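Dear colleagues,

For the upcoming journal club I promised to circulate an example of a predicted protein-ligand complex. I picked one with adenosine-5'-triphosphate because it came up in last month's discussion. The inputs are reproduced below in full, followed by the predicted structure.
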Amino acid sequence: MYLDHFVAQNYRNLKNIDINFDPNVNIFIGKNAQGKTNLLEAIYFLALTRSHRTSSDKELIAFGKDYANLMGHVHKSQVNSDLRVLITKKGKKVWVNRVEQAKVSKYIGQLNAILFSPEDLELIKGAPALRRRFMDQEFGQINPEYLYFASKYRQVLFQRNNYLKQLAKGEAHDLVFLDVLSDQLAGIAAEIVVRRFKFLNYLSRFASDAYTHISSADEVLTVTYHPSVVDIKATDSTEDIYHKVLANYKRSKNNEIRKGTTLSGPHRDDIEFKLDGKDAHLYGSQGQQRTIALSIKLAEIQLVHQLTDEYPLLLLDDVMSELDHSRQSALLNYIHGKTQTFITTTDLEGISWEIIKQPKIYRIQSGKISLEKGELNG
Ligand SMILES: Nc1ncnc2c1ncn2[C@@H]1O[C@H](COP(=O)(O)OP(=O)(O)OP(=O)(O)O)[C@@H](O)[C@H]1O
């Protein structure tokens, strides 16, 4: 898939962008604070109806304005679609082919985008919550059922935690009601866990390949899913997982009531990254961790392709200058001809662009975009 026509109005410092992108590679050059990240964020928002930088949509509306508007025309192998997102201070609305969609889940998946920025290092270095958010965001994008179960899980978990708190304080006493909530939560947990196993299994294989390709080292990357209910196995059916989660709730019932919270389930899961069997979170160098994070993003491209038959957009925010020459070339080689790619950089120099044949090069200045004249490789 690719995005050809794109409009952004009152989106942060992008007052009025109306632009036709190249189906292959688009490079945006600009000094700091000119709007490069804002542009990638806007494209990402059009795809996923949320920002990768903030959970407050209001921040995205240009200072002094009441709304931000994003529109795009998406080309796919089967059907094309027109997408629109309107962000106001009261909330957001979405349209597909000029028909407003009451449910965001009907909208997500029309345009797939994978974004990679220097902050993604945190996926390896940071806390487990970031890796869970990664799973929810990325798997939700490719699987509407995952999106549905993840949101349902949050609702029922909230309800169960509230009830456990009431039991802890002696404000509630009905243990049968706790069993009802446990049963409900275990059912949803099983649907999530079974999908996490499936998608992470694909992701692991693709990420190992990408890591070998990018790093040209002999190290082997393995990515392993760790459900917090430890006796769950990859070969378990949804039914098996449901019974194991439920049994776990039964075992820890008294402890959960004492603590007033749900102690296990998908909200406590984690992913482990290992290089040659050693935990990269603890022992990986900054460079190795960065290459792992990049490999995960490249693996996602393959995962989306595997599941939807389309390659997603790849948004690379300020990452080229952080990679050495061989990694830059390996990256560009890996994605060349597959994904529509958007690259931001402060400077064209020092980057191995030779693999890209005819990119469109733009300059961004104070939120305005102009097509840059001049050749890349000469
Ligand atoms: N809601 C908003 N309304 C107007 N301008 C905004 C809004 N939010 C952020 N900005 C402006 O956007 C600019 C930052 O743009 P952006 O983050 O895209 O920078 P960048 O070009 O990626 O720079 P860098 O290379 O430093 O990452 C700042 O000047 C900031 O004031």
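Two points we might discuss: Residues 45 and 51 are 5 Å apart (CA to CA). The chain has two domains: 1-112+314-378, 133-309.

See you all on Thursday,
B. R.
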